[in-house]
Amino acid sequence: MPLLLLIFLFVAIPVTEFAILYRLAAHGIGLPATIALVLLTGVLGATLAKQQGLQTLTRIRQEMAGGKMPGDALFDGALILVAGAVLITPGILTDAFGFSLLIPPLRAIVKRLIKAWAARNVRVATSFSGPPGGATMGEPHRGRDEIIDAEVIETRVERG
């Protein structure tokens, strides 16, 4: 299954993108307009991804300064990075996907879907070392346990 997915991602999507761009150039808006569209979406996408990425970085810093783990903001940052990467590649489908990741409500849906998939398919085991909270002998318990190691034990792939 993973091999088929990789073949799809690296062969079928670029071929489909090329076919769409060809049809758009030859039978739609013309070659100059198609090239302009590809360049415009690349520049606009990179600009939006940079802007949202910097906002997310500020949010991460604020949350860390407040003593919170910025898990949600880090997830947003990863999705914005993916959006920027697909937006600089030429294509209509990849641009639509990339722009959808830059719209916060749509990005929230993608986050929920990825989290649900991970909850169903990934099991994590952790191990701890030393006294609770990383305290040494004679120090009080600080209420936090330190994770030393985590690894994926099992993943399940649903076959439809």
From TrEMBL:
Top-rank lineage group of the source organism: Bacteria
Keywords: Membrane, Transmembrane, Transmembrane helix
Membrane-spanning parts: 29-49, 78-103
GO cellular component: membrane
Pfam name, any one: FxsA
UniProt protein name: Phage T7 F exclusion suppressor FxsA
Organism name: Posidoniimonas corsicana
Lineage: Bacteria, Pseudomonadati, Planctomycetota, Planctomycetia, Pirellulales
